[in-house]
Amino acid sequence: QALDYDTIENELHGEEERKMSSSDWKWIQFQRWIICMLIGIMTGIVAVVINICILELTAVKMHVVEQAIIHCVKNRCLYVPLLLWIAINVVLVTVASLLTVFVAPVAAGSGIPQIKCFLNGVKVPNVVRFKTLVTKVIGVIASVSGGLAVGKEGPMIHSGSVLAAGISQGRSISFNLNTRFFKHFRNDREKRDFVCAGAAAGVSAAFGAPVGGVLFSLEEAASFWNQALTWRIFLCSILSSYTLNFFMSIYHHHPGDLAYPGLINFGKFSGSYEGFELPIFLLMAVFGGLSGAAFNAINHKITVFRLKYLKAKYFKVLEVVFVAAVSATIAFVLIYWNPECKPLGQDPYVRLQFFCNDGEYNTMAVLFFTPPEESVKSLFHDPLGALQPLTIVIFVLPYFFLACWTYGLQVPSGLFIPSLLIGAAWGRLVGNCVNFIWPDDIWAQDLSKYALIGAAAQLGGTVRMTISLTVILIEATGNITYSLPLMAVLLLAKWVGDYFNHGIYDMHIHLNKVPILPWEPPALSTNIQAREVMGTPVVTLRTVPLVSDICSVLSDPRNCHSGYPITDSEGKFRGVILRTQLLILLKHKEFVERGGSSERIKLSVFRDSYPRYFPLSVINVSEGEQQCHVDLRPFLNPSPYTIQENASLPRIFRLFRALGLRHLVVLNDEYKVVGMISRKDIWKWEHKEKQHDD
Amino acid sequence: CYVIAHHKYEQLINSHAVKYPQSTIISTSISISQTPNICLIELDNFSTATVLFMNCTLTNARPLQYCEKCVTEYISVQNSYNIITNDEDKSNETVGCKSEILRSDNIQVVLMTYEFVTSIWKKSNCDVCFEKIPTVNGSFRYVPTNTTKTLLRKIKAVLLCFGNYSKNTLPVVHLKNETVCNMCKNLYCDANDLYQSVESQGNLCSDLIDSMNYTRKNWGNTYHCTVALPDEGEIWGLTALVCAMPVLLYVGVW
C-alpha cells in the first residue's frame, strides 16, 4: 500500500477553491505555522517526560541494587543483588515488550525505518497512530531504564512524527475526538509535510540539534521539499529543542537557564586537534566502517532468524525477557570480576565500591552501573587515568554483541546510544595507544577527541547517514572546529561500510520487503522501457459505470489497485479515480438514478473519512441498486500524470520519486490506456534484477 | 624626565649586558607623585596578607590541612582586599585607591593574585567546613562547624590507634594486620560512617577528604583490613542458568 502525495484536482476541488476568499487562504497558511509550533512544543514536552521518567526510574533502580550490594559485600550474599537486578530489569522490560507485541508492533525498534518509509510514500499500517505513540513512549522508558543496550533518541523521532500527524489532523479517531480545526489538512500530502516537521522536532529534541533535525528531514524526504516548508520545520525544531531545554532547566533547579539541550548532552569538548592527527582519525574511520559493517552483518543474521522462527507472540516476549536477564547478568558479572579500583575524587557519576577498599570505586561500574548516556559521557570526558584500557576492552566486547542482539527485539529501542558507546569505548582505547606511543606530547593527553571520533565512526559505519548525522554530531558537541574530522570520518566510515552491506535501517526496511524507493534510479537502466515494467492487463472503468461493475472490480482480489483509469465509450483516457473515492461514493449512494446532483457530495466528506477507510464488505448494495449508474466525472482526476509506453525507467523513477506518485498511467501511441505502473512495480522490477544478478 | 626614562629603558632592552643601578631604572619620583600614600599602604597590607596566606597554604599542603590552619590568613587577605575595593569615591570613580590599585594598568596583577587566592580556597571547598558568624563591627568570624570538629577528632583517633598498634607488630606485606584491624575496627567504622553521611550532604572540605583518604588508604593498602571474600558458587550458577535460557529458546524454536 502506498500514500497519495498527489492532489486530486477534480471538479469538486475546483469548486471549493472558487468559494474560498483570499483571507481564507491566508488563514490556512497561518494554520500551518500554528501547527508547526504546536508540534515543536508537544514533541519537546514528550521528550521531557521520557527523559525525566528514565532518570527517576534508573535512579530508583540503581539505588535499590546499590544498597543490596553494599549490604551483601559484607554478608556474602551477592546473588541477592544479582537476582534483584535481573528481576527489576525483567519486570520493566516485560511491560515494554507486552505493550509492543500486543498493542502496536510497529512501535518496535527505533522507528526511523518506519518514518523513512512513510516519508518515502509507503503506507506502513498504524505507524502514526496514537496507540503507537503511547507504546513508544512507555516502551522506551521501560526498556531504557530496564537496562537493555538501547537508547531513547531514535524513538524520539518516531514520537515526534506521530505527534505531528495527530496534531495536524485536529482529531483522534482512537478517542473519537473530532475538532473543527485543521480540517483542511486531512490528506496524505499535507500530513507528510507535518510528519517531516515532527521528525525534525524529534531529532532536535533528542540531540539538541535543531539544524540536524531539519537536515534529517531533508535527507530522508529530500524529494518533496520546498523552501517555505524548510523555514517552518526549522521553527518547529527550534521550539522543540528549547521546550526541552526549558523544562529540563526547571528539573535541574536552574529555571530559565536554557543550557540543557538534548536528551543526550555530550558535554564540552576542548575543540583542539593537530593537523597531523587526521590520518589517525581516518584510520579510525576505516575501523569504524568495518566494525559497523560487522554489526550490521550479525544483526542481519539474527533478524533473519527472528523473522523465520520466532513468529509466536509469546516467544517474542520471552526473547525480550531473556535478553533483559542476560544484559543484567553480564553487567553484574563484569563488575564482579573487575579487579580495577580507582580512588574517589575524580567525581564519577556512580561510586560503587563493591570489593574495592573504602574510598575507591569499581571502574567497571562507571560503565555498566549507569544509564548509557552517562557511560558515553564518562568515556568522552573522564581524565586519562580514570579508566584502564583493560576495563574498556572487557566492557566493549560483550556490549557490542549485546547491542547487536538487542536491536530488532520487540521493544522500542534506539541505536544511536549503543553505537556511540561502543565507538567511544574503542576510540578511547585508540587514544590510550596514542598516549602510550607519545606519552609526553600535549596533543596526546586529550582522550576525548579520540572517543568522539570513534563514536562518530562507529555510528556512521552502522547507520550510514551522511549530512544529518554530521550536523547532529557537530551540534551535539557544540564545536564547529571538529566539523572537518567528523565529516571525513563519517564519509569514510560510510564508504567502507557500504563496501560490505547496507546501513542498518535500509537493511531492516529491505528485510521487511517494503517497496521504498532509493534516492537514485537503478544504475544502467535507461534501456528499460515502461512497457516492461508496467502492470497489465489494466482494469478500466467507464465514466458512468454500473454499480455492479464497480463492485466486481473492487471485490476482485487480483486487481486490488489503489487507482483505476477511466475511459470513455471510444476507449479514450479520461482520468483516474481512486479506490477510496469509489468506496465513499458507494457508501453515500451517489447514484445517477437518485438525482444526486441536487445536493452534491462535498469534498469535506472525503476528508472526514481520511485516513481510515472502510473495506468493501461494510457496504450494502441492494439488488435494485446494482443496476444504478454512478457519474464519476466530477470526482475523477482529469489530468493525472501519464507516460508513454516507451519512456525509460529512470524517467519513470524520477517522476515517482520527485512527485511522490502512487501510480502512473501508461498510454500508447493512440492515447489508449495500456497499463499502470505502481510503486510496487518499480520495486519488484528492481528486486527481480538483483535476484538475476545473484 | 620622561625622555631620560625612556632612553634608559631602550638601552636596557637593547643591551642586556649593561647593568644599571636600580635607582636609575625605576624613576621612583614619578610614582610617588602619582600614587597617594594611603593607597601604597593599602597595597602593602594586601601584599603582606597574601604572602602570609601563600606561605601558610604551602607549608600545610602535605598533609593537606590548609583550610583549618590558614583560615585567619585567608580572612586577612579578604579584609585587606575589601579595604581596597571599598576605597572609592562614588561620585567620581577616578578618585580613590580602587581605580589606582586595581585598574590603572593592563596587567592588573593585584586582581590576578586575589583571584588566585580565592580560587585555591574555592576549589578546596574550604568554606563548607566553617560557619560564618557575624561580629559586632560588621565583619565575619570563621568558626569550624561541629561536624568538622567531630570528624577530625574521630579521624585523629583512628590514626592514633593505627600508630599505637602497628608499633608492636612487624610490618607484613600483603597480609592482614590482625592487631590493627581488630583494635581499630570500631573507631574506623565510626569515622567512616560519619564521613559518608557528611559526604552525602556535600559538606566536605578538602582537609576532611584528604585526611579520610589517608586513613582509608592505610586501612586498605597498608594494613589490608578490607578483605571482602567473593562468593563464587551462586553467582556462577545463576549466570549459567540465565545464559542458558535464550539458547534453549532458540534451539527450541529452531
Secondary structure layout:
The complex is a heterodimer of chains A (694) and B (254).
Chain A: H1 11-19, H2 22-75, H3 79-102, H4 112-120, H5 130-145, H6 153-169, E1 171-172, E2 177-178, H7 188-207, H8 210-220, H9 227-251, H10 278-309, H11 313-337, E3 341-343, E4 360-362, H12 363-368, H13 372-381, H14 389-406, H15 416-437, H16 448-463, H17 467-477, H18 483-500, H19 504-511, H20 530-533, E5 541-542, H21 547-555, E6 563-567, E7 573-578, H22 579-587, H23 603-608, H24 623-626, E8 642-644, H25 649-659, E9 663-667, E10 673-678, H26 679-693
Parallel strand pairs in A: 5-6, 8-9
Antiparallel strand pairs in A: 1-2, 3-4, 6-7, 9-10
Helix pairs in contact in A: 2-3, 2-5, 2-6, 2-7, 2-9, 3-5, 3-11, 4-19, 5-6, 6-7, 7-8, 7-9, 8-9, 8-17, 10-14, 10-16, 10-18, 10-19, 11-14, 13-15, 14-15, 15-16, 16-18, 17-18
Chain B: H1 2-14, H2 22-25, H3 28-34, H4 37-59, H5 66-69, H6 71-86, H7 97-102, H8 109-123, E1 130-134, E2 140-144, H9 146-168, H10 178-201, H11 206-222, H12 232-253
Antiparallel strand pairs in B: 1-2
Helix pairs in contact in B: 4-6, 9-10, 9-11, 10-11
At a glance:
The complex is a heterodimer of chains A (694) and B (254). Chain A is mainly alpha-helical.
List keywords for this structure.
heterodimer, A: mainly alpha, Clc chloride channel, CBS-domain, three-stranded mixed β-sheet, 26 helices, B: 254 residues, mainly alpha, 3 domains, 69% helix, disordered N terminus
